[in-house]
Batch of 3 targets.
Target 1
Amino acid sequence: MTQKGGPTGPVEHGFPHLETVRASVTALFRRLSPDGIRAYDTPLAPADAAFGPGDDLHLGAQRVASAVVRALRLPDARMVVAFRPMQEAATVELAAGPEYFVEVNDRFRTHREDLGAALSHEVAHVLLHRLGLRFPATADDEILTDTAAVYLGAGWLLLDAYREDRLTHQKFGYLTPEEFGYVLAQRGRLLGEDPSAWFTSPRAYEAYVRGRALADRDHRRAPLAAAGPAARLRYARDRRAGAPSGRGAQYRFEGRGAGMRVTFPCPVCHQRLRLPVAGPLRARCGLCRTVLECAT
């Protein structure tokens, strides 16, 4: 599999892949289970990804690769890292293992601080390959890989490698910087983790803040009890009409009268829930086991 990355043209921003990102989180919960997801509670430490100009090139690359392997809980996988001229940031040869051959762009010989970002995507490919988890379309599968790398604790490096100013445009992976921030914030909410101190790129931190704001809004959408007054009023109006009144509403109504139900996505795993329209109630997501306070 190949990976986008390195100096490019203008960086895409916003949340154009959000639907696929959310589907990717759902797929991870279904494949790994809530306990399996929470087993990735130890993220890759910044010190383990550090690779300076004084380090031996090949020994340092192997050390960083091994740290990413441990973070993604693949202790029996060995990454053999080679450098060569190539258009892509990196590529991995997927096979039965235990050895996997990763080729990375020659630019990482000198831009060593970004090697961990490239490796986190490729090792995530190995993990998903072993899990038998993939999406049919190649573009969607690459988004799944980025999402898995971030949500499982190693891919924050992909966001930290983002830089953009008047002279430089650099981004790795297939998600936008804001989408990387969104996934990182979703992980932080689940595991009580604050990645703010990890960033070395100011622009990456800004993108994380924008992504975190959207993740926070997921937890304040009607019919969740944490929704604000305006969202509650709109929901009440839509409930009387039996249908959402505007674009962007994630809830849908089924049936009429006493049998009316509302469906909406869980803010944690994004699986759709179906609840009776019956006032305040507490619901437990059957997939991620999150208990949600609702006002349907």
Target 2
Amino acid sequence: MRTTKLLATAGLLGASALTALLGAGTAFAGSGDSGSSGDDRAPTEAGTSFRTAQEVKQGQQATAGASTGDYLYWSFPADAGQRPTVKATVKLPDSAARPSGATWRIDVYDGLRRRQSCMYGTQSRATAPDATSVGLSCTLRTVRAWSEQWANDPLPGTYYVRLTAATLTPSDQGLPVSAEVEVTSKDVGGSSAVDGTLAAPLVPGSTTKEAAAASDEASDDASDQENGSSAGQALATGEPEDGWSSGWWSDRWVWTAAGGILAALAGIGGYALTRGTGRPSRVPPGM
């Protein structure tokens, strides 16, 4: 009877602790959701270079009007544990002025302007003669909280999307088109967590702003003036709504704690089952 009560009490305590840990894990994981608030408006134009890329939050649908042959740039933040997917749709003009045989392409670059490979998706597509739109997509690898310097792994920070027509004939140059871009993310969790964090996310905009502020306080010689003018053009300043997590939380904490609780329960149960009921009555004391 005593053993049964002990095991029941231990089981209740373990279930309560596990429930609390799972609730905390859900709360922390929810802080990294990729949705955006409805108060912020999505951009209605695109940049023409990395420096002028329009910032878009995950979950927003950015639009832009352009001409065939233009390079369109957007930027978005991605944090550790996220697997971003970029989708783009190019709406073509009417059949009379439609580009013939143009190939559209979407590329994604990280904060260091390294082109990131797509796990899957249609990154490049040629337009059919009767097509009215072209759909492209690129799903990146999971963003890691830390990586070796020689690796090309996606890291937390700003990412750049470039959309353009890769191949065009001279007669197709300058035709009007409209583009839509949307970025979403899947929270992968502890399956991709690593033991390490970056000192700071790869956000070039914050670096250039700091450089601009420092140059404003520096001396007025020509070199400082030139550096200040170039640094004043921030590349990107966006970050997730709840800030950068830098990978300090993952569901590995939950499963590690759950494993410890189960191991403790197994130890208590094993002790209760093997300790016996004490000295048999037929054995005299002292033996």
Target 3
Amino acid sequence: MASIKHPVFGAHILEGLCRTIGDTADGLTGTEIGQILLNSNIPDIDPQNTKWRRLYSAFAEWQNQHQCSNHILRFVQDTLQPVRYIGKEEIFHNRRLEVNKRLSFIGTELTEEGKFRLVAKATTIADAEQRASRLKHKLENRNVHTAVFEYCKAELLFENYFHSVFEATKSVADRLRKLTGLYADGNALVETAFSTTNPLIKINNLLTDTDRSEHIGLCNLIKGVFGLIRNPTAHQPKIKFEITEEEALDILNTISYIHKRLDKAL
């Protein structure tokens, strides 16, 4: 990518990039900023200012002179080299995803390997957020079933844990209806689909006690998810039903497991 002249950042995008890199709590230290600016051949013209303003002054001045963002991208790449974040993986992922939201507007993305690649330009905030969603990234690392992303795409985009788990739970009911042709909902749907006398869905041959126990176990797991998530979220206002990120990840992982078992239905 060194031979490509990359377009300049708009002022508001450049500011967001500088705020991310120079964040007071989790950003680079002042010493690190000075060293990486030097390595990137960007003059440090405002070293006494706050970290993000110091970066903004340096980046804006360089960009105005050269009418491209190449050395700024060199700075970003140096800043986010994975070797710098050994033992600080969470900070690395959060910082990289936030930086990528800004880079997406010039058609560039920094990979987990610390390398740039060209991507289609983002044209809206929603597009940029979707590409860099932290929750989505964590789910992808867990190899979550594609149905989870299909049903809660918009909610994941804004990291809305409450609606993410609600929409993902509905995906299980829809999947059961598609597999069985039933029009029921809730426990009635699950119990009919997983009947032990006339099952419409079988995850094994139901020939042994172990088969039967596994079959009933998946049925009860699905009913448990409906009872835990779908019923409370449908009847309680969001403010009274708080779901943390970690809880959302666990629930969505369970829903993913259900879909993966349904993938193998006989």
